[in-house]
Amino acid sequence: MAGAFHLAQLNIALPRQPLESPLLAEFVARLEPVNAAADTAPGFVWRLQTEEGDATGIRAFGDDRLIVNLSVWESLEALRAFVYTDEVHKLVLRRRREWFAAFSQAYLVLWWVPAGHTPSVEEAEHKLDLLRRHGPTAAAFTFRRSFSPPGAPAAAIVDDGELCPAG
Length: 167
Description:
Layout: E1 5-15, H1 25-40, E2 44-47, E3 67-73, H2 76-85, H3 87-94, H4 96-99, E4 100-101, E5 108-114, H5 121-134, E6 145-147, E7 156-158
Antiparallel strand pairs: 1-3, 1-4, 1-5, 2-3, 6-7
Helix pairs in contact: 2-3
């Protein structure tokens, strides 16, 4: 049943300054290598992007300052492997606090989609809202508290370990 579903993920970021600023120059320079690493990572299916190859020009949540990252992966394990073990991605992850403001509520959400489905920004906004209002559920969850795909043995997976190598 797991092959019938893929994992969608959304994370949003609020840059401390405009993307054109000197503070964000290194982040912007790393976008292309990170996106290229994701595109070739095992289990990668799709990511939201413009003709320029990234999603920095896509607006969501009624805030033109936000950066949206929306992608689909074959499994939770594939996404987790990319996020926490890919060296190119970890370089950016380690510096996220330098470049982006902290959120007081969830900024990342995961959910299962039928294989072949491309989630919209509106769908992703809805999933993040669900997570913020209800906490992790089978409909919208996190790395730390994840759920099996529909039709798989029902089990919430709680990972109390430290997932993020960036601290």
